[in-house]
Amino acid sequence: MTAAARPGEQHVESACPLDCPDACSLDITLSDGRVVAVGGSEKNPVTHGYICSKVRRYPEHLYGQTRIPHPGIREGRKGEGRFRRASWDEALDLVATKMRAVRDTRGAEGILPLSYGGSNGYLSQDTTDARLFYRLGASRLLRTVCAAPSSSAAMGLYGKMGGIAYQDYAHARLIVVWGMNPAVSGIHLVPYIQEAQRRGARLVVVDPRRTRQAEHADLHLPIHPGTDLPLALSIIRWLFAQGRADRAFLAAHALHADELARRAEPWTFDRAARETRVPAGDIEAFARLYAELSPAALRCGWGPERNRNGGSATAAILALPAVAGKFGVRGGGYTLSNSSAWREVDGMAAVKAEEPGTRAINMNRVGSALAEEGPSSIDLLFVYNANPLMTLPEQERVRTGLLREDLFTVVFDPVMTDTARYADVVLPATTFLERTEISRGYGAFVMQQAHAVIPPVGEARPNHEVFADLCRRLGLARSGDPETTDEISAAVLGSSRRGAQLRRSLDEDRIAFLEEGVAPVQFVDTFPNTPDRRIHLVPEALDREAPLGLYGYQPEPDFGRYPLALISPSSDRTISSTLGELHRAPVPVAMHPDDAASRGIHDGDRVRVFNALGSVRCFARVDSGMRTGVVYLPKGIWGHNTESGTTANALSPDALTDLGGGACFNDARVDIEPAGTA
Length: 678
Ligand code: SF4
Known about the structure:
It contains 21 helices and 27 strands. The model has no long low-confidence stretch (mean pLDDT 96). By secondary structure, it is α/β, with parallel strands linked by helices. The strands form seven sheets. Strands 5-4-17-16-15-6 form a six-stranded mixed sheet, with helices on one face. A six-stranded mixed sheet has the order 23-25-24-27-22-26. It has a five-stranded parallel sheet with strand order 10-9-8-12-13, sandwiched between helices.
């Protein structure tokens, strides 16, 4: 149902496919054929008719100055962002010619497609794009910048079992929010937490910062970044040592419980307190609450994974509900990503090409990859659904790579991102309001279909059309390839045995739900997707992969002259870099009053945040909600948000996590000094 229309206005439904767990259903207000407002609709029962402030500003994204109006070919220096107008034919001919030249001279592995979560839609990624790059034999990108370590852990332990539905948090007597901030990311969880609290539930928050959620907690553990693993292991140890482990549940549903207990054994509360820098008494209080209160819902975010111990940390956190026997009741268990709940649908079913055995490049090391010379160089970079200059580690290496005169860069995006300014060819992409999309939440258990509510702005074209066109220009198209929206969605939905039913639900209601219902209960309606449907607490593959074995803790290295831990979680303005062009205000680095005072820094001062990799010039916000030794610059910001045009990623190493090859953003260590007056 949509809101009542004013005279001259029309309301139409849509759904948000952005990289966010919640998958809001949307109510779009049109006037004279233009989008004038974006609000929430009641279609998705979880998101309940309200949306985030970011997407409310979507009309500015659609029609703003940064929108790319037509294809462009570079005429200025790289990075200058000056392009002459080109027709689609001219631009795509040039791109196809360059691709052919790279393939025929040094081999197609010289081409790197780079995409990420600019859209979670089934139609805008992994369809004709993958077909093009697979058939070309291009290098493959490992999409590891987020969720790779936690996915590895969740897959190893539970086969990525679906988690607790947001609605069921209202039934919990204890809620643990670990390494995430639902006040800004996955916001629709907040009312359910509040409802549970009104009914008497206790709330524990684990986060280095005193976030808005932490302010409402009964217990806040502001641990030092990178120490989630010792914290979780110390609680596991205590549960076993105190006879509070649910031995009956473990015997029935889990493997290797004794081995997990053995690995947790060294982690006394005192030892964990030394690493985490929170009092042992607070850790014990957390452990007691967790043992005593049921149902206990654990919301694990993506904060714990972003350091050298990230995979093991997430595995240890996810092991907690198994050890303490928290499954089998509504409101009990854990939630990480629910993306795999839709495993019945093969998102790659429309590709119709085999993935080649070409080299795989970890996206956290794209900066290094772009620096390669000779036979392993990347000569053509094709960026879409992503803004790598702002989102990848070692930002200055990425920038240096993008400046290479012998690199041909294509950026296909709705707006002129920081990365697009370095392109040789820019191609204007449609947004989700200008094309059909089918998307699913990775928090909310819903799949939604939305049709274009306006025609493409300017000369924008949808992803699937452009990549299908490039396939044809390169002679890679084959008869029967799914190319249109209808053909692609038929292939994707048809991969499910419930395909016809999903199709009907989406056509009739624009929304579809899981077979298990809107709120499956772990170990009642949904079980581990491991081959034996049991929990593998120490899976062999993860144990082999982690440098010190699974649950092996890598202590804080000596960072020498950089004593401050820099973290870069989401803010209420930016989660990913999508829509970052709308937030032009300067962004501060937040630091504890003691860290500021010892450096002669006052609130609002200009400062330089630096380490051996680079620097960021911005202003300081002195904030007692920070813990000492930890400073914060939000992720997802753009170059225009700081004086130097650099962001936290200029200070992030390209080291990889213990599992999954993930990014170690929170292992950035820096110092800060006053930068004087401008
Ligand atoms: S970004 Fe998330 S909260 Fe915002 S509208 Fe989209 S799904 Fe909803």
